[in-house]
Specification:
Elements (H helix, E strand, L loop, with lengths): L1 H15 L7 H4 L7 H18 L5 H13 L5 H4 L5 H6 L2 H17 L8
Helix pairs in contact: 1-7, 4-7
Length: about 120
């Protein structure tokens, strides 16, 4: 399953790469969140980055989430995984990012191994 999750994340990241608006707070750490929340996110996700690959690195995921939250860029990847507009109104960038990674993993776990052959 590890490979499936990595492949799904990579494909979704590539599909979403071009749709980012510019907002200064989304260009550099802490990506629209507090410094403490950013550091906590990095600490919590580094093991995943090592295991799955750089496509889920904080410098890749957090700007995308930040732009979806603050700049109105395409939220379809989130909505397809069950997120709501209320999630963007009430949750921090790092909370959204963590929940997005969990949702992607859950989605990838449902894909049969045969689909990757």
């Amino acid at each position: 399953m590890k490979t499936n999750a990595g492949l799904v994340v990579a494909l979704l990241s590539l599909a979403w790469a071009g749709a980012q608006a510019k907002d200064m707070r989304c260009d550099v750490p802490p990506y629209g969140d507090s410094t403490d929340a950013f550091r906590s996110y990095v600490d919590r996700t580094m093991a995943l980055v090592i295991r799955i690959g750089p496509d889920i690195a904080p410098t890749i995921i957090l700007p995308k989430v930040c732009n979806a939250k603050f700049n109105g860029t395409d939220r379809t990847p989130f909505y397809n995984l069950g997120f709501t507009p209320e999630d963007f109104n009430t949750k921090s960038v790092t909370d959204l990012a963590l929940q997005w990674l969990i949702a992607l993993k859950n989605f990838a776990d449902k894909i049969p191994d045969e689909a990757f052959k």
